[in-house]
Amino acid sequence: MNILELILTDYTLQIVSLGSALLGIISGVLGSFAVIRKESLLGDAVSHSALPGIALAFLITQTKRTEVLLLGALISGLISTLLILFITRYTRIKFDSALALMLSVFFGGGIVLLTYIQKIPNANQAGLEKFIFGQASTLLKRDVWMMLVIGTVLIALVILFWKEFKLVSFDVGFAESLGFSTKAITILLSSMIVAAIIIGLQTVGVILMSAMLIAPAVAARQWTDKLYIMVILSAIFGSISGIIGTIISSSVSKLPTGPMIVIVVSLIVIFSLSFAPNRGLVWKHFSNKRMYKEINGDKVLTNLYYLAMNHDNTKHSHNISTVKPNLYLKGKVKTNLIKTLESLSKRGLVEKDYFNKWAITQEGIEYVENYFGKEEY
């Protein structure tokens, strides 16, 4: 009840929650394309590359207005992204190597500039370090409005260029064969990802922003094979983690909001990796177990079929030791074989006689011949 009352009455919490939710939606939508394109580390490189832009924007303007600092971050991020694309396209350096190079160079330059700024005899420079780790509690109403406007533009562009982004993300060669300018589309999409990263720097910082960009998309990917569903789920996961992380941070004293948001979205990823249908680890475990039983059942059935075809009477029953010869039939192995035979019996493929011996039924013979071929026996 205290948390609910806090949500309904605390204006600061409402603003921060709304800003975090918007960030989650924007980063979730754009991050889906980064994951599909196998460019997940692009978010890490761009977010770190934004730091020198923030420092230079302050040095030039001597103001800490969020719009000015984020504009500097945007320019710096775009420059690093274009350099990465240029290096990858026109040199033999691979994409991951270009990312590592730009990340280290730009981030190192940003740290140097921030250190220099801190030594300037000017009290106005205090607080710039918040962009390293983020400080969501400093979000103002105008910051949220800015995120809303930029986010609306980005999502509108995603909807407008949906077909082009989808083609470039899955098959660049096919997109080129259809006459699309893949270079222009790639630059546009990368620029949009940069913009999504920049607006989240104040909330989660340059270090954690890559997780905010990639984690919701990774979680969404486990639940579906359709891109549009993945994008929607990613936006939902991002917004939920933003809201829940902000609420938990506000409920516990001195708990930072940005890292808490990342922890929540990481828990969503862990849950998705574990329990998502078809891809989840738990699902795969039981699916593999079921598949093993089916394969084991087919092997037992084909053994009975082979015995029946090599006997004068196809309905002749056999001991379980004959069903699986050369096997140490005691304990768990024997129990599992009996369970397999009983499972086949329920399907009407085998039957047990009065002496606990087993024989394949006519239905079982037809099953084996239909699925495995008669000529093999």
TrEMBL record:
GO cellular component annotations of the record? ATP-binding cassette (ABC) transporter complex
Q: Which residues form a coiled coil?
A: none
> What CDD domains does this protein map onto?
TM_ABC_iron-siderophores_like
Task: Report any one BP term from Gene Ontology.
Answer: cellular response to iron ion
Q: Which InterPro entries match?
A: ABC_BtuC-like, ABC_TroCD
Q: Which UniProt keywords apply?
A: Cell membrane, Membrane, Transmembrane, Transmembrane helix, Transport
The way this protein sits in the membrane is described as: Multi-pass membrane protein
The family note in this entry says: Belongs to the ABC-3 integral membrane protein family.
Q: By what name is this protein known?
A: Manganese/zinc/iron transport system permease protein
Which organism does this record belong to? Answer: Proteiniborus ethanoligenes
